Amino acid sequence: MVKRILIAGSVAALVAANAGEVAAQGFKPTRPIEFLVHTGPGGGNDLLARAISNIVEKEKLLPVRMQVTNKTGGGGITAMSYLSEKKGETHTIALFANTWVNGPLMSKEAKVTLKDLTPIVRLVTEPGVIVVKADSPYKSLKDFIDDAKKQPGQLKQSGGSIGSRDNIVRQLLMKNTGTQWAYISFPGGGERRAALLGGHVQIMVMDPQEAGEHLRNGSLRILAQIAEKRMASLPDVPTVPEAGFNIPNYLVIRGVVGPPDMPAEAVKFWEAFFAKVAKTAAWKKYLQDNLFEDGFQTTAELVKFVDVFTEQARTVLKDAGVKIYR
Hints:
2 domains, alpha/beta, 19% strand, globular, five-stranded mixed beta sheet, D-Maltodextrin-Binding Protein, domain 2, 11 helices
């Protein structure tokens, strides 16, 4: 009996020692990482997530693979709901954007908000551009607005979900100018761009990373920048207020969140991991090439930011005439 007690005690001590070692080492991924995005292929978050995945692979920053998963639908609601069901999971993370704040504010049916998930880091802030085809008759934003006044509801804009910056800027411009034009929503950035380049719509709000290739090959023309000040790479293109339309500058943010109740050790790991990504030369070059601004925030900073940004978003949406449910 004494021998059994000694053996049991030794096993318990060994288990306790191992547990202490694991706790000391913290979390480390042991299987593929699911990197969730709410957009279809070619959308802003999809492009950014795949760029991150490529950098991680080339720089060998993870011992496991990072797999991008597209969960489209509901203006981000589908992806948020999917992530919320992964409660406590350590190997599923998501790239969020403004839609994850706006969608629940605008949707009566939404069951999950950004605050229900686990904040990890903010990565970038992003200006925007209002574009038309290179052969469009519109040489300025005023040209488009003037034409919209002449034929109310006839012109078309392609874009993402109703909670995206695409539609919010449209709503703000329409309210500011007393005009109306149609909004055609597509799940993926590739489809949105194809509609514009194919002449099926007249105008589009784009993220710089989406517009880059088309600006370089001359297939698109920028009418205005959605930014506080002109981007250094576009010194001759006016901001929306400079173009004559005094609407709020609608900041786009992109960052990373985890499921509800993600263990603290995993949060610390992912916070440090993305801080490491943000310091790589490849990441800095990607930001420069795609006109992103480094907006890195730690977990603690992001928690505070989300509270402030949610209130700002609520105000902007109300100003745009959008119904708010929470």
